[in-house]
Amino acid sequence: MQPRLPGEMSIVTFVVVLSTIATCGLFSDGVIEAAGREPWRFVVGTMAALLVAALQGRLMWQSARREVTPGSRIVLGMIALVCFSLPLLGPAWFSAMLAVAGVTAVTLPENWSVPLIGGGALLVAGVALAAGASGPQSVLLAVSFPVVGLSAYATVWLSLAVKELRDARAELARRAVGEERMRFARDLHDVLGHSLQAVALRAELAERLLARDPERVAGELAEIQRMARGAVQEVRDVVRGYRVTSLRTELDGATAVLRAAGISCETPSLPEALPRHVHETLGWVAREAVTNVLRHSGATHCRMTLHADAADARLEIVNDGARRSEGAGSGLAGLRERLTAVGGRLQSGLIADGTFQVLATVPLAESAGQKEMR
């Protein structure tokens, strides 16, 4: 099972909460030690820790949403001033200086943050030595400073990468729909362009001959009617070719689009000798269901299965990452009408937490009404 991609707000909230908890942990030794000694140290240290945690949470929120402003650097300066002043309260507050590394890494651009964190590591070691820390303890603080900065940077970077992945998936869905519309528009243009131009020329000729040669005008009008009927038939042929398609083509195309969007999927095997109306109806089901997966879910896996027995053909499409609103709208309602018209049925809905199912059943025998329509 692949992990499901969470929403943007969930990711940002998780990043902020996780970083805030980690920051509070840097102040825990000092707060615990001060609680059992002088009360004023406990009050000052606790208030400073809460202030730094609140400001750090704000900067992490802005960074994870790409909303860092020039004012964020002022907040960073306040955090640095507070954290580098806390060692004055005692050796237990040395780790508080590490909080500066994380906010520096996510607030400033790399060409600023890297040298500042390197210099900050030396400053942390110097402050610790001046406050009475041992040599090994000072070296440990100096090494921990860039590690904390790198951890904060990686956390924010990963959250931004997930957001860009979701945006890319949505863009792929929009492009797939747009390309299909363009293909249909090109087919209509290629098929109808010549016919409609010929109709227009014939009509202009008839207009010029109206006063001089009525008999020829009558012939031209008859030719225009013939060409117009031919154009109507061409439109029907194009639409029929658009709607009546190979189910194998639809399933292969759906699999390719899903994989391009980062959703794992396998093309199902196709039973032999399926009737034309089954190809047409289930092809529409596959197209609409996969469009819903791309547009309305955060799926990481989609399973398509196709079975046929002596009476029916059944296409099942199941995806994870479903939201409560998936399937809403006219798409599935239109599919249900199509299936009802051929004597089939459609089932759709959530079957488990975050799992959505579309199950279409089409009888293999063609009804009398369908044969008449053919």
UniProtKB/TrEMBL annotation:
Domain Signal transduction histidine kinase subgroup 3 dimerisation and phosphoacceptor residues, every copy: 180-244
UniProt-listed Pfam families: HisKA_3
Entry keywords, A to Z: Kinase, Membrane, Transferase, Transmembrane, Transmembrane helix, Two-component regulatory system
Membrane-spanning ranges: 9-28, 40-61, 73-94, 114-132, 139-160
The keyword Oxidoreductase belongs to this UniProt entry's keyword annotation: no
Molecular function GO terms recorded: kinase activity
InterPro entries per record: HATPase_C_sf, Sensor_HK_TwoCompSys, Sig_transdc_His_kin_sub3_dim/P
Protein name: Histidine kinase
Organism: Actinocorallia libanotica
